[in-house]
Amino acid sequence: MKRLVIERPDLQSPLQRTTTGVLTFIFWLFWIYLWLPLISLVAWGLGIQLFYDNFIDNEGYQLLITQWKWYVFVLALIVFLLIGWARYNLLRFRDKERRKKPMPVDLVTHARDFKIDASRLAVWLSAKHLVIHHDEHGIINRVETGDTSGNI
Question: Is the pLDDT of residue 117 over 70?
Answer without folding.
Answer: yes
